[in-house]
Design a protein that fits this description.
Blueprint lengths: L4 H7 L2 E5 L4 H5 L2 H8 L2 E4 L3 H9 L5 H8 L5 H26 L5 E5 L8 H14 L5 E6 L2 H12 L4 E6 L2 H20 L9 E6 L1 H14 L2 H4 L5 H16 L2 H9 L6 E5 L12 H4 L6 E5 L1 H10 L11 H13 L4 H4 L3
Parallel strand pairs: 1-2, 1-8, 2-3, 3-4, 4-5, 5-6, 6-7, 7-8
């Protein structure tokens, strides 16, 4: 019998990661307890999460005073504070990574202000990988149009990347293509693709938030009946593409060289609308070779009353295709909803 509902979820082949990190949770043993009690095997972070952690309490004060004695650049001070937490989490998760190389990762994001500058994003991603030279570090790069080139170039250099802020199926297909091209370039240059890991972070609840607003503006009975459905359908169609892209002769060649698939990661999985189940974006997106990165409230909710019913992300894919047609039929533009 599984130790908990999240252990049961993990046994289905979906990795449980959390989407927050702070010095307090590291010092108090909170992350260690979540690894033991909640099947947590990875951590994602972003600048907003770190800013919130740094601004609360006094856990960062001593290091901040040290930094201010010789550093005046706000970005460098911020990075130094964040990197210390990242390194501590990497150390804690290193045994997980050694046992199961697809997990045990901690993500650190490039400066978001660089998201539309491919060269600067590439340079900063390499800098972060050099600064934190650990095999279980993922550097996060946003999936903007310019970001695609930086992602491909990083993969071609043998660097592990968490591609973040994916909303649309078209952009997801482009992300997968950038990953495949990067691997092909890496292999052609004599590199070892077995050392490269990547996840494609598909944002979920934000899609429903945006779509629901537009459906309510339309206001018809048909439109209102579609609320709360697009995000799950969108993710199911992304998973369908994942299974298609990582099969066939092109992928088999790369896999033969040791390459590993770029797993789908379901992000933004807290439920924003209180009318919906607080475990909606976990229960409906269970599937092998995927990751769900959750905020603490979603972890607690799923442990309390979540259900593991099977590989739900692969169920009723035809219905997901039909839903996109229904959304268009009531006058909501999918491409505009998912525009990044």
């Amino acid at each position: 019998m599984a130790e908990s509902r999240l252990h049961d979820l993990s046994a289905r082949g979906q990795s449980v990661w959390i989407d927050y990190l702070s010095r307090d949770m590291l010092a108090s043993g909170g992350l260690r307890r979540m690894m033991d009690d909640d099947a947590v095997v990875g951590v994602t972070s972003n600048p907003t999460i770190f800013q919130k952690a740094i601004s609360h309490g006094d856990a960062y004060d001593a290091q901040l005073r040290e930094l201010l004695a010789h550093e005046t650049d706000a970005k460098e001070i911020f990075l130094a504070l964040a990197v210390r937490d990242i390194e501590a989490a990497l150390d804690l998760l290193a045994p997980v990574h050694e046992r199961a190389p697809e997990d045990g990762y901690v993500s650190l994001e490039v400066d978001p202000t660089l998201a539309y500058d491919a060269e600067a994003t590439f340079d900063e991603a390499l800098r972060l990988h050099t600064w934190i030279d650990r095999p279980n570090l993922l550097v996060k790069i946003p999936a903007t149009k310019p970001g695609l080139g930086a992602i491909e170039d990083c993969i071609a250099r043998g660097r592990s990347i968490n591609v973040t802020l994916i909303f649309s199926l078209e952009r997801y297909r482009e992300v997968v293509e950038a990953y495949l091209r990067g691997l092909e370039r890496l292999v052609a240059s004599g590199g070892d693709p077995a050392k490269v890991r990547s996840v494609a972070s598909f944002f979920v609840s934000r899609v429903d938030t945006e779509a629901d607003m537009r459906l309510e503006a339309v206001g018809t009975e048909a439109a209102l009946a579609l609320r709360g459905k697009l995000a799950v359908a969108n993710a199911k169609l992304a998973y369908e593409h994942y299974r298609e892209a990582f099969s066939g002769p092109r992928w088999e060649f790369l896999a033969g060289k040791g390459a590993l698939t770029q797993r789908c990661l379901w992000a933004s999985t807290s439920t924003k609308n209180p009318a919906y189940s607080d475990v909606l974006y976990v229960e409906e997106l269970i599937g092998p070779h995927t990751v769900n990165t959750m905020p603490e409230e979603t972890v607690r909710a799923f442990q309390d009353h979540g259900e593991v019913r099977g590989d739900t992300v692969a169920e009723d894919v035809a219905g997901a295709h039909a839903l996109l047609a229904d959304i268009a039929a009531v006058g909501v533009d999918y491409d505009d909803v998912t525009l990044t």
